Amino acid sequence: MPASQIARDWDPHQFSGLRRWSLLLFVAGLFFFTASRVPLFNIENNPALQAWESFYSENGQATPRRWPQTDQHGVTFDQQMILAVRTTYDPAGVAPAWLHSLRQIASLTTHLAEGYAVVALLLLLTLFIRLKSSWSEWRGPVQGALLGAITAGVAVQGLKILIGRGRPNELIYRAWPDWQPISLEHSHHSLPSGHSTAAGVMVTLLCVLFPRWSGLWILLGIWLCATRVLTAEHWPSDTIPGFLLGALCCAFWVGRFQRNAERNQSDTSSQRPLE
User: Fold this and answer.
1) Has residue 5 been placed in a domain?
2) Which range marks the domain in which residue 199 is found?
3) Cα 157 from chain centroid?
4) Residue 193 burial (10 A CB sphere; 0-12, 13-18, 19+)
5) What is the pLDDT of residues 8-17, one digit of tens each?
6) What one-character-per-residue DSSP string does the chain give?
7) How many CB atoms sit inside 10 A of residue 232's CB?
8) pTM for the full predicted model
């Protein structure tokens, strides 16, 4: 598709506005608190929890419950979702066939949001745009997304080390998550999700370039975030902050490149001699 057709549909200010981003951040914070701290599910008659406990009982081991005493009254949304997907690792027959198939699809498609893959794709696009002048109007958004991906990547790695949240894929062996701030261990780099951050960058760029398909791109972003939970690599509450971090960084740099382009175009027009 020629860049000129894309530019007619592209509103560079669609992601601007402090109020809009503030609302998104508030909703994300509320979701994180509710999902990670509020016990929403019962412990009694909980099939997912029973399947987790059976992993130990069949091996003659005691269930190593190390959750806080306050959590004895229930299971949080984060814990329940991970317990549910972990049933695919438990003895055969515990997990339904559809869940097993869904996890297989997730394990393949989750690589679409690898940070290095997204950066490599943006670098290739940048090079391609420089070689193909008819796509020059993509230059600002793509370069902005590239800087956004790099900025978000540095930020997410720093936050992972600083926060030190335990990953859920160790739940079977270490029971409930623990927090070890300032940790260099990969097992404690759960929050925020790096893949979700890369997905946020990619979805934001796609929404800028192809706004008519924004609904599809957002669904793609939701699925990529869900793959991190289905593969038990992240808690659900890790994904939303990561996605918003990537989207914010991408929107900031894309908007900055666009404002510079508009300013340069205005300067060029003002300097053009009158006929």
Assistant:
1) no
2) 14-38+110-270
3) 13
4) buried
5) 445 555 555 6
6) --HHHHHHH--TTTT--HHHHHHHHHHHHHHHHHHHHSEEE-STT-HHHHHHHHHHHTTT--------GGGGG-EEHHHHHHHHHHGGGSSTTSS-HHHHHHHHHHHHHGGGG-HHHHHHHHHHHHHHHHH-GGGGGGHHHHHHHHHHHHHHHHHHHHHHHHH-BPPGGGHHHH-S--B-SS---GGG--SS-HHHHHHHHHHHHHHHH-GGGHHHHHHHHHHHHHHHHHTTSS-HHHHHHHHHHHHHHHHHHHHHHHHHHHHHHHHHHHHSPP-
7) 22
8) 0.83
Structural domains in the chain (count)? 1
Handedness of CA 113, 118, 121, 126 (dihedral sign): positive
Residue 55 is assigned to a structural domain of this protein = no
Q: Would you say residue 59 lies in a domain?
A: no
Segment 142-162 shows an average pLDDT of 93
HSE at residue 201, side-chain half, CA atoms within 13 A, is 33
